UniProtKB/TrEMBL annotation:
<keyword id="KW-0472">Membrane</keyword>
<feature type="active site" description="For sulfotransferase activity">
    <location>
        <position position="142"/>
    </location>
</feature>
<keyword id="KW-0812">Transmembrane</keyword>
<feature type="compositionally biased region" description="Basic residues">
    <location>
        <begin position="112"/>
        <end position="121"/>
    </location>
</feature>
<dbReference type="GO" id="GO:0008467">
    <property type="term" value="F:[heparan sulfate]-glucosamine 3-sulfotransferase activity"/>
</dbReference>
<feature type="region of interest" description="Disordered">
    <location>
        <begin position="47"/>
        <end position="127"/>
    </location>
</feature>
<feature type="domain" description="Sulfotransferase">
    <location>
        <begin position="133"/>
        <end position="333"/>
    </location>
</feature>
<keyword id="KW-1015">Disulfide bond</keyword>
<keyword id="KW-0808">Transferase</keyword>
<feature type="disulfide bond">
    <location>
        <begin position="328"/>
        <end position="349"/>
    </location>
</feature>
<feature type="binding site">
    <location>
        <position position="231"/>
    </location>
    <ligand>
        <name>3'-phosphoadenylyl sulfate</name>
    </ligand>
</feature>
<protein>
    <recommendedName>
        <fullName>Sulfotransferase domain-containing protein</fullName>
    </recommendedName>
</protein>
<keyword id="KW-1133">Transmembrane helix</keyword>
<dbReference type="InterPro" id="IPR037359">
    <property type="entry name" value="NST/OST"/>
</dbReference>
<dbReference type="Pfam" id="PF00685">
    <property type="entry name" value="Sulfotransfer_1"/>
</dbReference>
<feature type="transmembrane region" description="Helical">
    <location>
        <begin position="12"/>
        <end position="28"/>
    </location>
</feature>
<feature type="binding site">
    <location>
        <position position="327"/>
    </location>
    <ligand>
        <name>3'-phosphoadenylyl sulfate</name>
    </ligand>
</feature>
């Protein structure tokens, strides 16, 4: 009697354990804990993808080959990295432009990570994988790069890494698989983008990008040097009390610094020419920050067409926020929830550090700044064969 009763009980327990096992594996495969999933099943991203029958993209092939035994192109890239260190120039100019990660950024990054991991879990349907970028926003700091990245994801076929990954200029030794793990999950037809304004600053970095993917699309956004200068100061003053105490005019005119500072902020052209030494000209799209402010949808549609997408977005995805003085994402639009981590949840605007109040400058100092900037601006317009309607130039 007792044996007969325990057999069905044992099968019920076995079935329950089996069902629990399937549930746990399914959950972890969906993005909850890919590492544990890998340990349990022996699957890695590349093999899991080919199992789903998804189309294999170029970037994915590079990284997949990394997971194999033979030494492949991807491996060679990471090998050559290991000896590379970030040049002093890269480090200096990054901190100069205020790209360094501050406490505020870290907080919002960790929030972003929470959001994106939540989103990743939600989007762990078959075919959703972390894919390498096919387009990069490589420049310029304080020219609207964050807004451009966030707003580009208004198109259903674009996803973006929510923070600056700095793979090609700082973390290259981590390898391509590390880079892929920083990316959001995407479907086979979606394009992943990443923005790190520091990528344009050195030829070595640009060459690494070229080795990674010679066909990658590059985007740079430039700004009226005067406004960029105001933005750089506002950024510094918000982070360091000593700049706030100093005031904009004193910061600008502190001796021989002026010329250096203005040149640094105005010389987009030498960096753009550096890109042209590595990539064909038609692989770099140069945008105007003022167009991003005044007519963002038109600018975004221009980028989608550059990315090879044949559909566009409509004007109702963005609304002008009078209080903020900038366009923000329309919270009532169905795409809004998918922008979690890329714009404020409360108002659809960029986070507080974007769109600061600018200090004014006039008189002789303004004239001096414009005189220093003008040759760089004129050369830029010549080189990109486009003239932007910038005040003073
Ligand atoms: N829609 C919208 N919302 C908020 N901000 C906007 C927008 N469009 C353009 N901008 C301008 O983007 C400037 C910040 O540039 P970046 O994102 O490149 O700065 S950073 O280098 O990443 O720190 C930021 O500069 P500041 O105004 O000085 O804050 C803005 O002028």
């Amino acid at each position: 009697m007792s044996t007969g009763g325990s057999l069905p009980k044992a099968s019920v327990i076995c079935a329950a354990v089996l069902l629990l096992g399937i549930f746990v594996l399914y959950h972890y495969q969906s993005g909850g804990c890919p590492k544990l999933y890998t340990v349990l099943t022996g699957h890695v991203a590349g093999t899991a993808k080919s199992n789903t029958g998804d189309e294999v993209t170029r970037g994915d092939r590079i990284s997949e080959s990394n997971t194999g035994d033979e030494v492949t192109r991807g491996d060679r890239i990471s090998e050559s990295n290991t000896g590379d260190e970030v040049t002093r120039g890269d480090r200096i100019s990054e901190s100069n432009t205020g790209d360094e990660v501050t406490r505020g950024d870290r907080i919002s990054e960790s929030k972003t990570r929470r959001h994106s991991s939540h989103r990743n879990r939600l989007s762990g349907s078959p075919g959703k994988l972390q894919r390498l970028p096919r387009a990069l926003i490589i420049a310029f700091s304080k020219c609207g790069t964050s807004t451009l990245r966030s707003f580009l994801t208004l198109h259903p076929d674009v996803v973006a890494a929510p923070r600056e990954v700095r793979f090609f200029n700082v973390h290259f030794s981590e390898g391509v698989d590390w880079y892929r793990r920083q990316m959001p999950y995407s479907s086979p037809g979606q394009i992943t983008i990443e923005k790190t304004p520091g990528y344009i600053k050195s030829i070595d970095t640009l060459q690494r990008i070229h080795t990674f993917d010679p066909d990658i699309k590059l985007i740079a956004i430039v700004r009226n040097p005067m406004t960029r200068l105001q933005s750089s100061y506002a950024h510094r003053a918000a982070r360091h009390k000593r700049y706030a105490r100093m005031g904009f005019l004193k910061w600008l005119s502190s001796g021989a610094e002026l010329e250096k500072r203005v040149k640094h902020g105005s010389d987009f052209v030498s960096k753009i020419q550096m890109v042209y030494r590595v990539f064909p000209e038609d692989q770099l799209l140069v945008l105007n920050e003022e167009a991003l402010e005044s007519d963002p949808v038109t600018l975004l549609n221009q980028v989608y067409s550059f990315l090879g997408l044949n559909s566009s977005i409509s004007n109702d995805v963005l609304v002008f926020d009078e209080r903020k003085g900038f366009y923000c994402v329309n919270k009532t639009h169905p795409i809004f929830p998918s922008l979690r981590g890329l714009v404020n949840k409360s108002d659809g605007c960029m986070r507080a550090g974007k769109g600061r109040k600018h200090s004014e400058v006039g008189g002789a100092l303004l004239q001096e700044i414009v005189d220093i900037s003008r040759p760089y601006v004129n050369k830029l317009f010549d080189v990109i064969r486009t003239k932007f309607n910038w005040t003073y130039f």
